[in-house]
Specification:
The model has no long low-confidence stretch (mean pLDDT 96). The strands form four sheets. Strands 1, 2, 3, 4, 5, 18, 19, 20 and 21 form a nine-stranded mixed β-sheet that branches. A six-stranded parallel β-sheet has the order 9-10-11-12-13-17, with helices on both faces. It has a three-stranded parallel β-sheet with strand order 6-7-8. The chain is an alpha/beta fold. 33% of the residues lie in helices and 19% in strands. α1 links the parallel β6 and β7.
């Protein structure tokens, strides 16, 4: 019995005072509830009780096997993560699911099947080209197998290798397989900058042709020249929804992204000085590209491209190309945090009625989003900007997120729903993480339950690991 709570139920409805009773991991009663003998009673002290937050674009599964308490997640109030993002998933998914069923984590896990992972499984090292028809057929078989294992849909990372070499026809064929299994489509699109409009067109075409829900991963406008265009982008998405395309988005509350340094060079030509200069003039300034992972020389982590240029006595464009060449030669890639977005655009895109919240983060992250995305929404967009009400923010993290992922038994405080819950102080909840201290924990969150079990209390993990694997629920075949 969690009594004396201000219940924000995840639907967007106004908060109401009441009690929530949990039995066997499920919510049995909401409002005025009668205790039974043996009930453990928790006094919420008037704090806000909400459904557990759902991270619809997460990379927190990386390292989760060694850190099953998932403390950077539960400290934020996150109770479910959706992985297999950007076109990369564990394969076969059945093995990952079996591992976390035998030895659960503190949070629930759902996964997409990744297009890039499927492509690599079929084409191996010879994936830097369009796939042949026979290879696409083998990919379709793999997608079907992973959907049968419980994947909730197909994810693509079309700005990354090997997916950048895929044709639209290839992606459409695989999407049709996922749709036939009642799946969904989520995409890090082919471009988030100069080709943004065309990339949105590809995603909408998939939704139009298959009838499946299609979601834009970490919706952003990462082109300095187009800052202020959020309203135009959202008008296009609204028009698509009016047409009948079930298009949605997720977003994180930062104007800095994190990816590989090479994503700024679509042609992957690390000798093209003109392309490099264009990227630094229009996509991200050299001082706004900060290395977060650089295997050839870890001492450069934390330094910007501008810093490296100064250290080496060369131009920023030359330094940018040199870093890409060095990372490619090492064969391990690179990580960079880039400042390419306007905060006003970020806020506007999050404010869209069909955008839910995500982190795009990791357990051990150089970007503060991995440890702070969800509390930051309350501090920045609810209390500071007043763009969202408390109830709207919770809805974007819970009921809306669950709807976008196809979860029917989570995301709301209602009888019969899974008892994933977070108790927090709406006046003080805030992110603690920063670019200087990305692992710093948030404040204002008192308790977190997953499937009715307390997993975090007063900022500390309890050691309980009641997380479940959330598989796609089979339904009738789409067109």
């Amino acid at each position: 019995m969690i009594a004396n709570a201000s219940i924000v139920d995840g639907t967007g409805a106004a908060a109401r005072r009441g009690t929530v009773r949990i039995v066997d991991g499920r919510i049995r009663c909401v409002g005025k509830c009668r205790a039974a003998r043996g009930d453990r009673k928790v006094d919420a002290g008037g704090l806000t009780l909400a459904p557990g937050f759902i991270d619809t674009h997460s990379h927190h599964d990386e390292g989760l096997a060694a850190q099953r308490d998932a403390a950077p997640l539960t400290a934020q109030g996150v109770t479910t993560i959706v992985v297999g993002q950007d076109g990369f998933s564990a394969m076969p998914l059945a093995d990952q699911f079996a591992a976390f069923t035998a030895e659960p984590a503190a949070v629930n896990i759902a996964s997409y099947v990744g297009h890039g992972s499927v492509r690599e499984a079929v084409m191996g090292k010879d994936a830097k080209r369009p796939a042949r028809p026979d290879e696409i057929e083998r990919m379709k078989q793999l997608v079907a197998k992973e959907m049968d294992a419980g994947a909730i849909g197909l994810s693509t990372g079309l700005e990354y290798e090997p997916a950048i070499y895929s044709t639209r026809e290839e992606v459409m064929e695989l999407a049709r397989v996922a749709a036939a299994h009642n799946g969904r489509y989520i995409s890090h699109m082919r471009s988030e900058d100069i080709g943004l409009d065309d990339a949105i067109g590809e995603l909408l075409a998939i939704g139009r042709a298959t009838g499946m829900p299609v979601q834009i991963s970490h919706l952003k406008i990462a082109l300095v020249d187009r800052w202020g265009d959020a309203a135009a982008v959202l008008r296009r998405l609204d028009a698509a929804r009016a047409e009948g395309i079930d298009v949605t988005a997720d977003a994180y509350p930062y104007a800095w992204w994190q990816s590989g340094l090479d994503v700024l060079l679509a042609a992957r030509d690390f000798s093209d000085l003109k392309a490099a200069q264009f990227a630094l003039d229009h996509l991200a300034r050299p001082e706004g590209l900060v290395l977060s992972d650089f295997p050839p020389d870890p001492s450069l982590v934390g330094k910007s491209v501008a810093d490296v240029a100064k250290l080496r006595g060369i131009s920023p464009a030359e330094a940018f190309l040199a870093l890409n060449r060095e990372a490619a030669a090492k064969g391990e890639g690179s990580g960079v945090m880039g400042h390419s977005m306007s905060e006003d655009d970020v806020a506007a895109l999050i404010g869209w009625a069909n955008t839910n919240i995500c982190s795009d983060g990791q357990l051990d992250d150089h970007h503060p989003r991995g440890a702070g995305s969800f509390p930051r929404i309350f501090a920045w967009l609810v209390r500071d900007k007043k763009l969202l009400t408390l109830e709207q923010a919770v809805h974007k993290m819970t009921g809306l997120a669950a709807s976008h992922m196809g979860f029917t038994d989570r995301g709301q405080i209602a009888p019969g729903m899974a008892a994933d819950l977070v108790l927090f102080d709406p006046a003080t909840i805030a992110d603690g993480s920063s670019f200087e201290h990305p692992a710093a924990r948030p404040r204002g969150i008192r308790s977190v339950w997953v499937n009715g079990v307390l997993v975090m209390n007063d900022g500390a993990p309890t050691g309980a690991r009641p997380g479940q694997i959330l598989r796609r629920q089979p339904e009738p075949m789409r067109k």
